[in-house]
Amino acid sequence: MKEIRFENVWKSYGKTEVVKGLNLTIKEGERLILLGPSGCGKSTTLRMIAGLEDVTSGDLYMSGRKVNDVPSGQRDVAMVFQNYALYPHMNVVDNITYGLRVQKVPKEEIAARLEAALEMLKLKGYENRLPKDLSGGQRQRVALARAVVKKADYFLLDEPLSNLDAQLRVSARKELVKIHELYRQTIVYVTHDQIEAMTVGDRIALMNEGKLQMLDTPENVYHRPANIFTAKFIGSPPTNVVDVDFEEGAVMIGRQPFHLSPAWIKQLEQSGADRLAFGIRPEHLEIYHTPEENALQGTVKYVENQGSSYGVYVDLHGHEMIALSEEKHWAEGEMVYVRPAMSHIHLFDRETTNSIGYPKELG
To answer: What is the pTM of this model?
Structure first.
């Protein structure tokens, strides 16, 4: 099994702990995204897999073999760096094939792999150019081609698209998925970009301050966040999260009751949580000009043009929430009514910051 397994792995630099007690299994042949803010430990985790960083404590396994002390060159990994790391004095062909030549792969095999990579990554016609004569996107494709021709069991990518413009990033993401579907390597992909994580990953491992916050599919990470950090980090604009009290079947938001469904009341009672936080994504917060059943009254504080929609910031007697609306006609100072969609709310234990879970009726 070409899987990767972390067992209580810690990584420290002196007294600074960067990765803290990581337990994580990366399945054979999957695309796992290491996602999180800068400094959360995701790149360090990737570099431990590559053998570029030592494990301070705990155990790291690859294909069932403990690799704590196994040199990088013996781990069968191909890595793509954020800064491309191309040889400036070598042309495209030599950059792509250098590693194969060092490994003394037969010339016929090198030629076949090179041809396939050039075709796949649209590098035909650039074979004799030096890196300085290529655009950023072309250099990135050369770096990807160099990793592809290696045909390693493990494909490690450290923010490989961060230097590309928006249009190139979209096409490069598609190419990465195509490469994986062709070779089925175990891919570990580091990024802080949520869109890349959601579109490329089979699963997302979300990290913060060296700790794993959630490990699940992109759908579950988005729709069923495990804790407040996950809810706020994933999505733009981020999830609205406010502290609330539970009284007689309702959560009190800005001194106003939002009545919960029987299923949510049962879920809340089973959780045993006393101090609560309430979450709702902006796209799931309905906004009206007139009073509606179970809606909360508020005042528009600010309207933000977001292109395809408008972000309407509403003050609910001291609690600010943002709602997304396709309508433009919301005015600052206007009284409005907002209603969270019952099937999309989130309730968290304020003490642990963890989700209390979701009713079975939601599926």
So the answer is: 0.89
